[in-house]
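#lab-general

N.A. 3:47 PM
ok so I finally got the sequence cleaned up, no stray characters, all 249 residues accounted for. can someone with queue access submit it? mine expired

B.Y. 3:52 PM
send it over

N.A. 3:53 PM
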Amino acid sequence: MDPRNGCRVASLRVAGAELLRAGDRYGCFPMVPFCGRLELGEFRNGGVKHRLPADAPPHAIHGTGRSTAWRTLRADDAAAAFSYDLADPWPYPGRVTQLVELEPDKVTLTLAVETAGDSFPAQVGWHPWFVRRLSADDPGVRIDFSAAWQEQRGEDHLPTGKRIEPQPGPWDDCFGMPDGVEVTLTWPGRLELTVSSRAEWAVLYDEQPEAVCVEPQSGPPNGLNTHPRLVTPIEPLELSTTWAWRTLG
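B.Y. 4:20 PM
back already:
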């Protein structure tokens, strides 16, 4: 874990193989308090309009947690907990926590957002960069999943609001999985890893030669505007994802 750099999972080694792309921008970072692109960096909470920095012009992207230093609350060989306080440019006070739990054949990540005052819309999710190949002669990872729909993507890379039949890749797209996310990555003859979550949306991205992304999230991109989920004093937002693996051959 690298709590100083957005509390990202910097490395995951299974059976001697590194599964995450290395680098300050990679690994697996939490997306919070929103996921993916936020149209023009703007959202409303009731009648109040807010604007966030457009760090993926003309939009904001992936939340503020990935560029924040988190505090380590506790850590041992099996589990660790981290937190940070929501602050400018996010307009509402609150706290975000991430719990990481490691077992011999899986790791579970849990994110929670709670308010320290007024209610506000929020999202949580994860952006893992899984390596495409485990070795130079690896044929490349295979991605298997079933989705009820695909969010049609506009020229601005935001969902248009129309749901379409899932399309073949390459993808930079959001898929609806109302029964929960379940996506399996298979490195033939080496390893199989399943990303699961009770989340109903996942973004799949495989347009880079080095890595692929499977991103469970509590709402679609621009969801603060299209599918707002309020964090209230009596109802925080909490979501988990589990990566379970098994060796092949």
